[in-house]
Amino acid sequence: xxxxxxxxxxIATERRKSSRNGNPAFMLTIQRPDGELRQHRTAxxxxxxxxxxxxxxxDTVHVFGLNNREQVITAQVACEARTGxxxxxxxxxxxxxxxxxxxxxxxxxxx
Length: 111
Hints:
- By secondary structure, this protein is mainly beta.
- The chain has a domain at 5-77: CATH 2.40.50.
- Helix content is 4%, strand content 47%.
- It is built from one helix and seven strands; from the N terminus they run βββαββββ.
- The protein has a seven-stranded antiparallel beta sheet with strand order 3-2-1-4-5-7-6.
- Strand 2 (25-31) and strand 3 (37-41) form a beta hairpin.
- The chain is globular, with a radius of gyration of 14 Å.
């Protein structure tokens, strides 16, 4: 099973209503390397919501893991795009094209 992801930089965050537990939530605008803008909300009670406004998410391209509701649940720094078959590459399918992306410290997980 391939986990859904979006690759890009956070260019805007908008605070949303907190969860019943009082944890923050954000609507993120993520700019893909091709310039396309995508909007995704952080998942309910996600630890990522506490860090998402830090500059590293605006300054560095990340691979954002999504749950089945297309909410952001993980973020890993994308080191570089690679070609070839490397065991630590993540294959991202976008508009029918397979894009290999090397991710620092990424461990595949089933969502």
